[in-house]
Design goal:
The protein is built from 17 helices and 14 strands. With about 475 residues, the protein is an alpha/beta fold. The strands form five sheets. It has a five-stranded mixed β-sheet. Strands 8-12-9 form a three-stranded antiparallel β-sheet. The protein has a two-stranded parallel ribbon with strand order 2-3. The longest helix is centred in the C-terminal third of the chain and has 20 residues, at about 335-355. It starts with a helix and ends with a strand. The chain binds ligand F0G. The site of ligand F0G has 16 residues, from helix 5 and helix 6.
Amino acid sequence: MKENSLERLVSSRYGKVYKTRPYFNHSVEFKKQFTALERMEKLQNAGFNVFNFPAEMVTGCDLLSDSGTTTLSNEQWAAIHLGDEAYASNKGYFLFIDQCEKTFGEGFSVFLFHQGRAAENALFNQFKGKQTWVIPSNGHFDTTRANIEANKLQALDLFSDSLKVPSSEDCFKGNINIGKLKKLFKQSAKNVPLVFLTITNNTGGGQPVSMENIKDAARLSKAFNTPLFFDACRFAENAYFIKNYEQGYKNKSVGGIVREMFSAVDGFTISFKKDGLSNMGGGLFIRKEGLFTKKFPQITDQLLDYQILTEGHPTYGGMSGRDIAALSIGLGKVTDEDYLSHRVKQVQDFGKTMKNFGLPALTPAGGHAVYLDMDKFFKDTDFQPENFGGISFTAFLLVTFGHRVCELGNFAFGKFDRNTQTEILPEVNYVRFAVPRLRYEKQDLDAVAQASRALYQDRVYLPKMRVVYGRDLPLRHFKARFEIN
Ligand code: F0G
C-alpha cells in the first residue's frame, strides 16, 4: 500500500459527496449525512464487506442489487392495501395465475416460492446426489450454482466467446456457447438432465440472449432428448433487447416476443424480485405436456410435497396475500414498452458515460447493470488477483462517495483450493453497478460514474486487500471479512 494512500482516499479531496434526492416516487426518506471517516469506521467494523454495511449510511446511490429494490407503482401500493390474507386460495393468487398465463403463455404447472433461490433448490433437490450429472448454462448465477452444488450435482458455465472480448460490439454476449454445448452432449448426454439458459446473463455481464440462440439451444437439447429451462429473472429486459437488436423482431410486441421465448422451454425458475417488479417472490414453472414432465413424471407430485413442507400451501408458497397481489400487477406492467425503453436506455446511458470517462465498462450494457472489468481497471498497476482489487474498489467507492456496488469477480466467483493453497480464478472479473428499477435519475447515475472515474484516476492509491475470514467458505462473498494489506 502506498504511504498515506488511505488518508488521500478519505481526504477532503473527496469532500464533495453526492447525496441522492431524499424522495422517491412512493415515499419520502430524509437521509442523514455521514462523513467519509464515519463510513470508513463502519466499513472497517464490517470487515470491508459491503453487504454488512448499514444501508442507512449509503447516502449516494445503492447499486448493490436490482433485486427486490424496485420502487412500487401506485397501483401496486393500492393492491397491497386490498390484499386478501386468506390462508389458502386468496384472491391475489388467482390474479397471479391469470397474469402468468397472459405473460408466459398457457400450459405450465406453477409452484410459488418466497424468492428465486427457493425455487432453484426445489428443482435441484429432486436430483440430489446424482454426482455425475452436469447442469450446463450460459452462466449460472451464484445462488443457482450454489444450489446445484449443495445438491451434489455439477454446474457448468458455457459462456459465449464474445463475452471475453469486452471490446466486441456483439449485442448478445449472454448467449450460450452452442459449440461447447454440442461437445458436452456428444461426450455424455446421459449425464445432462437439463440445460439452463439465464436471461439475461447476470454472471455474464448482464448481457442478453438472442432468440436465435434460445431456439438453437432448444433444438440441440431436444435432439439429445434433454429438456431446456430458463432462469428467467430478467425476461422482459431480454425480450426488449431481442426487439431492438435482432433481425425480424422490430415490429413485434415485447409481450409477443416473451411468449415466443417461453414457447421454446420445458420449464423455468424465476425470481420475481427483478422483472416481477416486486419486492419478493419466486417461482418454478413446469410445462405440463413438456419433455421434462415426460422424462421425470413423478417430479410434479414430489414438488408439491416439497413446497408444502418448506413454504406452505401451493396457493401462497411463502408469500403474503398482499405481496402476491402486488406481484400480479408488476408482472402485468413489466412488458410495457414505455417502461422498458426508459429502463434499458437509463442503464445503457450509464454504461456509455462510464466508457466515455475511460472506464473499462462492458458495452453495450445489459438491461439491469453496468459491469466494470477489474482486470482492465488494474492492468497497469502492481495489483495481483489475490489482492482483490474489485473488493478494494467497492470498499472505497462506498467510503469516499457513499455509493454501494458489488464485486462479482475474482472474490465472488473465485474459489480457494485448500490442497494447493491457491485461488482458482473465475473466467470473468467484474464489479457490478446494478440499477434498481424506477428509483434513480440520470444525475444520480452520472454522479456514480464521476466518482468511479476519480477512483480510477487514483487507482494506484487503492489499498490491496487481505482475506481474514471465510476465504474457503461456499458463497464466501456474503460472509468474508477483509483487512487492508
Ligand atoms: N437467478 C439470477 C439470474 C439472479 O440474478 C438471482 C438473484 C437469482 C437467480 C436468485 O433469486 O435472489 O430471488 O433468490 N440475483 C440477485 C442479484 C440477488 O443481486 O443479482 P433470489
